[in-house]
Design a protein that fits this description.
Shape: globular
Number of domains: 1
Largest sheet: 7 strands, mixed
Order of helices and strands: EEEEHEHEHEEEEEEHEHEHEE
Number of helices: 6
Distance between the termini: 41 Å
Length: 261
């Protein structure tokens, strides 16, 4: 299935790969940002070039194949080095056999500010789903990109190999909450799997500060053993069994006994 582009705001495009992954192109006057690459069957760069001929910098939210399969098509790539060790297994689970060479990638860390031509990007680490999961805020356009850090409306997956313990995840979410509280009220928020926001029982559950706060509360309930846990569906279990799901408000999580530390 070919890539599609939807202009969400002026010069801001949501790109979908036909495999449930969403990624984003932000065009400036002198250069452009690409946040993630999806895992579409076709090369991505030709599609990006159909939208802009500007120099493109790629920011990767985390090291899973459905978010960075096409990273090597771009010259300038930023990725948290914390996620590089888990990439081999994460790619194999998706059936991705082509290796991604990270040797030329530029590292990013929590609290770093990137000055990228027309754009100033704040990097906030929200590790949990992966150790180095990053949330990016583009100041000039008031755009927040969350990847899979708090899921995309139907929960965060914390049952996969390499996920952090729930206790660490909660601390990282508290830091994200503090950062988010200082953002303008009209900030636009974009997640890593746009369609999933409509899978929630409410009909639409976009990623929001309220969802982050519910996720923090849910982490506490899980750590205290007070959550209403249910067995996770088989397709979510993968290598580690048993796995569970739990919900609080608009937040939900898939996790294992090993997650509860």
């Amino acid at each position: 299935m070919p890539y599609t582009a939807t202009e969400e705001a002026r010069g801001v495009y949501r790109l979908d790969d036909g495999k449930m992954s969403s990624f984003y192109l932000v065009k400036g006057e002198e250069n452009a940002l690409l946040i993630d690459t999806g895992m579409g069957d076709d090369p991505l760069l030709p599609f990006i070039r159909s939208l802009t001929d500007l120099p493109v910098t790629l920011l990767v939210t985390h090291g899973h194949g459905d978010h960075m399969m096409h990273a090597n098509e771009f010259d300038t790539v930023y990725l948290s080095p914390k996620d590089i060790p888990l990439m081999g297994g994460a790619f194999r689970r998706l059936g991705i056999t082509a290796p991604v060479d990270c040797s030329g990638f530029l590292p990013i860390e929590n609290g770093q500010t990137l000055n990228l031509g027309a754009f100033t990007v704040d990097c906030v680490e929200a590790g949990g789903h992966t150790p180095g999961s990053m949330v990016f805020y583009v100041r000039e356009r008031r755009l927040l990109f969350t990847g899979d850090a708090v899921g995309s409306g139907v929960g965060v997956w914390m049952q996969l190999p390499g996920c952090l313990p729930v206790s660490q995840y909660r601390e990282n979410l508290r830091r994200l909450e503090t950062f988010w509280q200082g953002l303008p009220a009209d900030t636009l928020v974009f997640s890593g799997h746009h369609a999933q926001r409509f899978y929630h029982p409410s009909g639409d559950n976009p990623v929001s500060l309220a969802l982050v706060r519910d996720m923090i509360t849910l982490c506490g309930l899980i750590l205290e053993g007070k959550e209403d846990r249910k067995p996770a569906p088989e397709m979510m279990v993968r290598e580690i069994r048993p796995a569970y799901t739990a919900e609080y408000g608009r937040a939900s999580m898939v996790y294992t006994a090993q997650s509860i530390q």
